[in-house]
Structure formats: structure tokens, C-alpha cells
Amino acid sequence: MFTAGMARGAGPTPEAPTPELETLLRHAAEARAGQARAVLVRGPAGIGRTRLLNLARQRLTVEGYAVRYAGGPPDGPARFPAAHALLPPPPGPQAPAAAPGDLRDDRHVLHRRALDLLAAGPLALVVDDAQWCDEASLRCADFILRHAAARPLLLVLAQRTDAPGPGTPVLAEILARGRCALLEPAPLTEAAITRLVTRTCGGPADQGFVRRCAELTGGNPLLVDRLITALRTLGIRPGADAVPLLGELHQGVLTARVPELLAAGPRRARQVATALAVLGRGAPDLLAALCGLDVRAVECALKGLRRIGAVPPGSPPHIREGVRGAVLATLPAPELRDLRIRAARVLSDAGRPAPEVAEQLAPLGRIDEPWMFAVLRDAAAEAPTRATVRAAGRWLRGEAGRALTDAERGGLHVELARAASRTVVTPAHALWHLRQALALTPDPRGQAPVAVQYAMMALGTRRAAEGLRLLERVLDGLTDAPDTGDGPAGRDLRTTVESALLATAVNDRTALPAARARAAALPVPAGHGPADRRLLAALSAFAALDGGSAERAASLARQALRADEPGTAGWGVFCSSAVLALADRVDEALAALDRVVSPAQENPPLWPRRAALAGRSLVLYGIGDVTAAARDARAATEVTGPAGAPPLAHLALSSVLLSRGEAARAGAVLDELARTAPHLDRSVWEWHLYLYTSGRVRREHGDLEGALELWRRCGRSQEEAGIANPVLAPWWLPTATTLGRLGRGAEAAGIVDAALERTRNWGTPRALGLGLVAAAAVVGGRARTRLLAEAVETLAGSPARLELARAEYQLGHELLALGDARAARGHLRQTIELATRCGAHALTALARDTLVTAGGRMPQLAVAPVDSLTPSERRIATLARRGHSNKKIAEALFITPRTVEMHLTNVYRKLDVRGRGDLPRGLAPRTRAAAPRPADGVPSPP
């Protein structure tokens, strides 16, 4: 349907002029002077084309123009004959009509009619939505314009740029030939939006509010007006508080009127909108098959849907999300179910991938046909989603699934467990499927691989103890089963179960003593298969917990990792990286965790990445990279939500907060952990770190006796479990320093003596340095400063930058108390530099206050990006800049090429460079000046 009309003479006074209107009237003045003019007004929907044309028609009528107008969206084929509507025949007898398609006769007839009108005065031909004009009309208009060049003729064409139609190519041709001036209405400026908001809402507008309006609407006048009207309707003032609400309101504005427009529109538009809402997106041929129309009718309907904003520009067509929800909400449940099933069949017949077909089946409450499960099963194998896995599970629990044999159902449950582990951040759903598979598998041989999968997936969850008991039961069953045999297959099966049992027990405080005896009786495997590597990882953990040689524990961990072999991402990586971190081999630990956080495989399981983020955050905190540790800990928490975050993420985050002086928030994080992890006290690693960190929080709150009780409890728990590693939750260090502050050095002496023996056994620079700090707490005078200076020197050779900063501070504080302010200032400045780079705000502030007391000035720190590199990253980057290959660097530093690659990736990210050719100078590791030896002792640090 289109509209047409004519006006001449006086009319109502138009609104205030705009720059676009003034430009259009300037062309009208030139036309009135006898030089025919044409103007193309072009822009997207809502930019103000129609309003501009209405204002121009009013002004032109006032100025004596005869105004002929045609326009309006069509109903039916997307085209309308504007030429005959603009220049209809005069009243009276008519000449015979030209034959259809006789364009030449049409041109001359319409030209004569235009000349007749021009004889009476200036003439304006105005066409809105000219993109919907038929080609013949536009070519006739161009013909008239060229043959009336010396007449007072103005041709105004308005084109909507986001809805191409049959007239779009002709308009582009007319514009390209220079016979038409282009006028593109500009979006509203922020100043214009401010005036509109003030006028509409009756008060001043916040500039942040105006800026957000402009960002959301792009300055589109229609959208701005509707957005502001919605605000006024809701009674929301245009202030800063309203800014967060604008995004949601904007989406509502875009979609609010679409259902009304669809209801009032043609039936085929509703059919196509419904099909598109079900599919989400789809090519016209798929939409045609689903809604029962031909492709041409679908394309015509899509053009109408684009005009009303239901379908944005782009291919393949897709419906706006808000509109999609509104359309689906109008469908009765049985009709929607039938549509989804039909859509799944259409997609399947078109050869679409199984995951795309499964999207239609997943929302169905009842999966009752075999072909549906086949699709869901294929989708779960290719690219599983939580919805597809759950839908497949509904089929398996239904009547069709119960008709299968136990073996078939058990196998399908295992498949779905594998798929579920790739779609969820907590493994509860996958564990449920594995429990069903175990219940359907009676013999130990069949249960063994499922039990191993269950136990390894349950690590770190409340089901971990259940996994341990399950493995013990299966291992006993394999031992008693006569058909297991002593052949290679039987031995391999027992090794697989035994390795999983040890892996589970190594983090179960109650099972640790018995598991240690079992581990001691096993030979060290060669590490050729996954079970061997898992066993190596468990043996490395036992070696680390026993506190013997750090080098032996690290060697076992390296064998378990086999960094360059595929298939090693799992519990073994987390365990081995933890051991390597305890052994001060943090570069190797981080490289292993990096591979899990950024895996090469597509659709990797989410729970290992979550656990790796939490583990990496603790390792990063241990080397003093507080900022990066906070980023990883928060990422592990945000991926799952606080209740589903790994305990290690809570522990790392609380440690970070303590280093930043936020003890109250750190305590809240630990309280949340205690609430959401009721079985925390069974774990080995998490439980002792929890007690250790909780004691630090108590100390920061001034409850020294409460802190000491928590640390002693940590020590007793480690003793009961046989844990002798000095750097796993080193409770003895704050216990010694706190007792020293309280003047109870004799009470601390026994603790320090035992700790020193264990630090010497473990033998890493970190352990030895911390032991020296503890020893300094129970002595005085020169002995204390000598021990602290030795601790600083020892820790300088470790990756523990934050511990080095703390030791530097204690030494500086002691020297200041002794009266050696000059020597103290050097150590305090070093503390500030280290703590600032670590991101330890609390220590930085404390050291600065002490430096001022010592008469020093604040150091002017300009922390460059290169200062964020770890010593290992500096070494590798220096060699890379000198032109050495990754292989050469690996050989020189006795690491793997993959580790070199991981470190260089971190370097490029931190320095914001593309490759080794962009690496800057000055990358070599800095040499540290030797600290001056104090001459006298000082009291315990605060």
C-alpha cells in the first residue's frame, strides 16, 4: 500500500529549521530560479528522513510549490509505481494506455504531465521509501529531470539504507552520474540529546547519562526519543544513577513494538518470524521449509521484518534476542514442541551439524524417539553443551533407554559423563552419570576404568572420599577375582586402579598414612602410559610431603609431566606442578599449568581449567606476583561462582587480600570457603593452607593468641598426617616471629630447631631462607641481624620475591632500631621496590612509613613493563633477543622447548610486543648489590 497526494498554497508553520532542512530549501530556491534540482535524502530507519520530508513539504507549500508526494511501505510485492502516483492523468477523456512495459511511451506521457504542472508554477516531486519504487518509475523521474533542466522542478527522493529494495540500484546509478545531490541526516549530537532530555524530562541531564544514550542509540532520533519516553514513563530521572539501567531499557525499546507490528502485519511475516524465532538464524531456504512458504515469499517477509527492526541487517538472517523471546512466548507449548521437532528434521535433512540440530531437541521435556537420542549423542561427542547432555540423559532415563541392556546403558552413561565434563565447571553431573554406569556394571574388571574416571573427576569435590572408597573396593575385587590373572592386561589394570588410589589418597588426610606405606612398596614406573604418569605424580607428592630431597621430588614430577607428550592435562599436572613449586622449580610448574589454562584442543573440559587457574594463582602468589595471582584467583571464582570455586582459589584470593592490607575481606573469603566446603578438613593441601592463612587473618586483626592456636593446630595436623615438608603451609615461621614479638623466645626455640632441620632436609633456597628468618626471631643482638642478612642473601637466590621483600623489611627495621639509619634506609628502599613490583600494598605502605622515620626520602619508582618479568622470563627473553632459537635456549637452560615457548608467550604479553624481533634492550636479569652486614642486633620486627 502506498500514499500519494498534492498540495499548493499556504499551510501550517513548520517546526524550527534544521541544517538538513536548510540545505534542502537551498536546493529548492535554485530550482525555483529555473534550474531543476534533485536531492537524495539517505539514511537508516529512525534517522529522521520522513520527518525531514514532512517539514520540507510544509515549507515548499508555503513558498508556492505544487508538491506531489508518494511513499509508504507496500503490502504485497516489495515495489510500488511511484511515477503514475506522482503524475496521474488529468480529469476528462483519456488517451489509450501504453502497453505494459512500454517504458518509452510512459516517459513521454509523464514528461508532458509534468510540463503541464510546471506551467502553473514550481513543482516538487517527493518520494519517500524510494528504495521500494519500481525501476520504471525511478527511470521516468530521471528522464523528466533531464528534460526539464531549465524548469522550476525539484525532485526529492528518500532512501532507507538498511532495507535495500528493487529501486536501490537505480538510486545508486542516479547518484553516481552526478544528477542528484546527496543529503544524509546526521545523528543527534550529545548537545542535541541534552536539549531533548531536558525538554522531555523537565530537568537537567547528567552528561554521563547523555553520553550513554548516544552510545546505545548511535544518535538515532527515533531511538533516542523512545528511550527517553520510556524513562519518563517509569519515573526515572536522567541522572548518573540511571546510567546502568539504559542498556536494558534500550533493548526493551527495540523490541517493545515488534509483536504489535507482527500482529498487524501480513500472515506470512508472522510465519517467517516464528520460524526464525525457533531456528534463531537460518537461510531463506531453511525458513521456507519450516514455515511452508516459497523462498521468494520468505525473502519478501524478511524485508518487512527488517523494516520494523525485528531482523537486523546481515546474513544469514537472525532475529533479535528480545523479539525472539516475545514471539516464542506467544506460542502454546504443544505448538512450540511440534515446531522444534519439525525444525530438527529440517536441519537434519539439510545436512546441518549434529550440535545445531540438537539445539532444537534439547529444550524438549520429552525425548521419546530413537532418532532424537542419536542426534543428541552425536552432538555430545562433537561439541557438547549442558542442555544437549541433559536432554540425552532424559532419553536414557525414559522408557526407550530402559529397554537397552545394562551394558549398553552403562556405556552410554560413560559417554555422557565424558561429554558433561567438557560442558560444566563442576563435575557433579558427570559424576552422576558415572555412578549410574557403576551400578549397571557388576564385575570389578568392568568397574575398574569407570571407578578410576570417577575418582579422578571427584578430586577436590565432596565426593572425593567416596571415590577413594570405591577404588579400594574395586582393587580388592580385582585381587580376589580369579579371572583377573597375572598377565600384562591384569597387571596394567591393577596399576591403573592403584595409581588412581594413590592419587586420591595423597590429598586425603585420613588416608595418607596407609597410602604412604602402599606407595613405598611400589617400584618407580617408567612413565610410558597415563597410569604410569599418574603414579609418578602421586609418588612425587609423597616425596614432597615427606620433606626429603626436593631434587628427588622434582625429578619424579618432571617424569610425570612429560611436558611434550599429549594427554597429560589432568590431576597429574596439578599435583606435579604443586611439587615443582614447593621445590622452587616455579618456571616448570607455571609452564605445565599454562598448558591446561590455554589448551590447544577444542572444547576442553572446563573443570581442569578452573583447577589450573586456582593452582596457578597460588604459585604466582608464592613467587610474589600478587597482581597476576589475584587475576587468576578471581577468574577461577568468576567461572564457577563463589560456591563452586575450588578451595585453592579462595585460599589464593585471601592471601592476595592480606598482602594488600584487606584483612577483613580475606577473612570473609575464608568464611565462605568454610561454609561451602564442609569436608575441607579431610584434605591435605587445602586444609593446612586454610589453617595457616586463617592464622594470618587473626594476626592482622590483633588476635595473636587466636593466630597462634590456629598455627599450632596446623602443625599438629601435619604431624598426625606425617607431613614434614617445611614450605607447605609453613606455620612454624609466623609462630616463631609472633612468639618472639611477645617475648616468648624460649617457647619458640623448640619449634625453630625442628623447622631448621626440615628446611635443611628439603634444601631449597626458599626453605633455607625462611628458616633463617625464623631463627632470627628467637635471638637478639648481632646474631639476629646476621641471620636476617643471611636470610636476605639466601632468598635472593630463590623465586620468592615477596618473602625476600619481607626479609629486607625486617632487616631494615632491625638496623633502624639499632641506630644504623643509613644502612636501614638501603634495605627499606629495596623493600619498597620489591613490594611495589609484587603488588603487596600493605608491605609497601609499612616500608614507606618506616623509611620516613629513618630520615629517608620516598624512592621515585617508575615500574616499567620489563620490571614485571620474572628472572626466568628475563633470561629466556635475553637469549631470544640475541637470536637464539627455542631449542638452543632449552638446551642452555636445561628445560624443554615447550617451556621456553610458554615463557616467551608471557613475555610478549607483558611487554605488549608481537615477537622476539620487538623485544627491547635491557632485559638481562639485574644483579643485586650485596646487603651491608649489620654490626649490632635489633629487637623482633612488628
Briefly say what this structure is:
The chain has 942 residues and is mainly α. The protein is 63% helix and 4% strand.
3D structure, described in words:
The protein is mainly alpha-helical and 942 residues long. 63% of the residues lie in helices and 4% in strands. It is built from 46 helices and six strands. Strands 1-3-4-5-2-6 form a six-stranded mixed sheet, with helices on both faces. β4 (123-127), α5 and β5 form a beta-alpha-beta unit.
Strand content: under 5%
User: Unreliable segments (pLDDT under 50, ≥5 consecutive)?
Assistant: 1-16, 74-78, 97-102, 563-568, 926-942
Class by helix and strand content?
A: mainly alpha
Q: What about the largest sheet?
A: 6 strands, mixed
Number of strands: 6
Question: What's the structural blueprint in terms of helices and strands?
Answer:
Elements: E1 3-7, H1 19-32, E2 37-43, H2 49-62, E3 66-71, H3 82-86, H4 103-118, E4 123-127, H5 135-147, E5 153-160, H6 168-176, E6 181-183, H7 190-201, H8 207-217, H9 221-234, H10 243-256, H11 258-264, H12 267-279, H13 284-291, H14 295-307, H15 321-329, H16 333-349, H17 354-361, H18 370-382, H19 386-397, H20 399-402, H21 406-421, H22 428-439, H23 444-458, H24 464-480, H25 488-505, H26 512-520, H27 530-546, H28 550-561, H29 571-582, H30 586-597, H31 606-622, H32 626-640, H33 647-659, H34 663-676, H35 685-700, H36 704-721, H37 732-741, H38 745-762, H39 765-776, H40 781-795, H41 801-818, H42 821-838, H43 841-853, H44 871-881, H45 886-893, H46 897-911
Parallel strand pairs: 2-5, 2-6, 3-4, 4-5
Antiparallel strand pairs: 1-3
